[in-house]
Design goal:
Elements: E1 3-8, H1 13-17, H2 19-27, E2 31-38, H3 49-66, E3 70-76, H4 85-98, E4 102-105, H5 113-128, E5 148-152, E6 169-172, H6 177-185, H7 188-197, H8 203-218, E7 223-229, H9 239-244, E8 248-250
Parallel strand pairs: 1-2, 1-4, 2-3, 4-5
Antiparallel strand pairs: 5-7, 6-7, 6-8
Length: 252
Amino acid sequence: MDRILAFGCHPDDVEFMVAGTLALLADRGYEIHIATMTGGEVGHPTLSPQQIRARRLAEAAASAAVIGATYHYAGGYDLEVQYDDAYRKRVVRVLREVDPLIVFTNPPMDYLADHEEASRLVRNAAYIASVPNYDIGEPSTPTTRFPYLYYWNASSLTDIFGRPLPLSCAVDITSAMPTKLEMLKCHQSQQEWLAYHNDWNDYLENMQWHSREDGRKIGVEYAEGFIQHRSTGHPKDNILNSILGGLCRDLT
């Protein structure tokens, strides 16, 4: 079966916004890969960057294991993600390792610049990973295709001006919510950080709120919304409809 890559900026980005859809795809036999740009090095009130990276990468790997996924760390550093040569090569390396049929990533506009830069880097890599002459400084095999590319919804479900994103589809994840919760529970250190920094005292309920709000858009209990990237090179049909049938509903 083919491969699917969810590439987030920080450990827990994927679990918060797309884990339900990944669980559904894993149930259908797809090989799932989860990657993060950074190790969340600054996200704790007391641990050192080295300590928190080790803890968060272990949590990310444990979460991926819930659905039998493979975890990849791209090697970036929290709050320092930028669209430069080093980061472009890091991201292309991961794309070439996986050669995915489908890629999910952060939306182009979100509350944190790190998220927006990660989105831009993954979008670029999805296009150029197939270019044989693009040298990443180590042996690698170019990808064989342009993947389907989807952006998940923004944090708090709005852009930086408080406007909803132009979602193109949403996936009913009601049956997969127990798995999504199990995956997110692995990120205990992030729960500690957000309670300290953002006053999020119920991390899991906050995720469920996001999923309930997306569910309202298609009349189900829980959903995950996406924007499909349909620019030059990338496939234009919504492959999630083909794979998931009635669980994926178009919003355009």
